[in-house]
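Mods, move this if it's the wrong board.
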Amino acid sequence: MKKKKIIKLLLSLFLIIINLLSIAIFSYVLILYKGVETFYRLYGIVILVYLFLFLSYLLLRSIKKKKFISFILPAFITIILILVEVTGSYYLNKVYKTINNYSNTNNTYYSSLVTFNKKFKSEKDLKDNTIGIVNDTNDIEGNILPLEIIDDLKLEDNNKIVKYDSTMELLHALKNNEVDAAFFSSNYIDMFYSVEGFENIEEESVELYKTSKKYESKEEIASTTSSLNEPFTMLFIGVDSSNDGVTSGYNADVLLLATFNPKTLRATLTSVPRDMYLKTACSNGSYRRINTTTWGSSSSCAVETIENLFDVKIDYYAKINFKGVVKLVDSVGGIDANVPYSFCEQNSSRKWGKNTVYVEKGLQHLNGEQALALARNRHKPNDGSKTGKNMAKYCPTWTDGNRNDYTRGKNQMKVILGTIKSATKLTDPNKAIDILETISSNFQTNVKTKDVLPLYNLLKSIVISDSTNLINVQRLQLNGYDVWGKVYEPSSKSYPAVTIPYKGSINDIKEEININLGNKKIEPIKTISFDLNKPYEDTVIGQSKYNESRIATLKDVSSYSVSNIKSYASSNGLNLKFIDVDTNQEVSINDYTDYSFYSQKEHKDIILDQLSSLTIYVKKKTITTEEPTL
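Not the wrong board. Structure tokens:
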């Protein structure tokens, strides 16, 4: 009998200790989930403690009893409780860590030394040559890491290092042989293949050296809202990269500004086309295509540029690689989408041939590659682009549909809303965790875990209602006019294919955003009209017809008189200078009596509001005297 009591005592103590530890771990994990119904979390802990005390009492009391059944029952219940606590702790902790990893700021960055001169095979071949880097000390892959490489490889000993104000200037300096090699992000092919004149950069360039290093991100994008239970803004950045990861250089080919009001369950999604041309937050007053604002491995420039554009503070950003989109859509089991036209596209690795993705018109259930293809498509077969040429080869008859950046913006929203709808149907917690882990390498955000958890109550109400229609989503689209071949870009020394946004479109979007964030009172609609013979079309704010004057560009003043040049400069706020081309000294002239026009320093067709001066080079006329005739 004593032996049985000793066994029961040891087993009881073992179960009590294990149960106590499992309760402590489970309680700790529950405490981490701040913002998730505090009452129920504390109530759950109290119940577990009560069960622990009750079961411990039964186990200890069973030691004195002769029947073994008095021990088996509380022991069995204790084991079940331990298993529940351990399993719950494991999954809750796994979810917490996975969410926490998305805001990790310690990232790996990649930098490559690149040339267009095929005679160079490696960095060792560079001697008495010129190497270019960008001058931006915040650019890890274009400045910080290259300087370390230059120092480690002692490249400055035998070569000249030249710094350029922008990546675009450096790229064209390399193309024009101003430098023999240059440092760019190792993702440079994906960055530059869509730049005019660099469509074949993969075949034309040689990578002489490549390395990587971990750095703490310098991005500091602080939220102005204390909780996601309050109205907030988020910028979604879609990374155009054929490789995994979101830290290397890339084009921001998808820019979606979302606002969400948890009180009204109303959201706005504003699509900003990739070719919009405007002053960015990191271009020193110069105009740039907006999809280049993420060059330099940062999201800060993109965020600040959108903030300045719509006069709104962005609380959060989330960037996802196109590879991540494929994995995310596949993880939720695909999406349902109404495809507006039949088309084909390259896959997420930018491959054609057997990898070509085909999507037919109509209501379709799309896998990850097809969903990404829908979100990216904007070309037709034989439309003059490199992509169009490939389409002419693989789907020559699929030419229907109005395809451009605006159509692509609408398709991107279909993919986003379809993914959300599919995700809300998931019931297996293991599947949800798998999704989070699957896209982790291709997703990054500044949303902290403490900010995400309060969304539990909102998500719960959506799941309980079993409908994503609970949220009203208003679509917005920034509209503009094409200035292809009409605006000169000094940094690239070319006429880029770009679009200038309408001020009216910007203002309409600003107003809708402020209404949704609760900063402006909404004006009620008092009248409505409809036609039973016409299908209803959802209103897209920002897509109205705007009657605006085109952006002003610098004129060619070579044929102007001096007085007309002075008048032109004054009316446009330009500091005018006349420089003698022979002496390089400023001269004061009122007409072309003694001087003649020689050249105009600032290139014609530069957007005027990025210029502060106009410099005219003049040449002194040669005075000839006629010899007297005898």
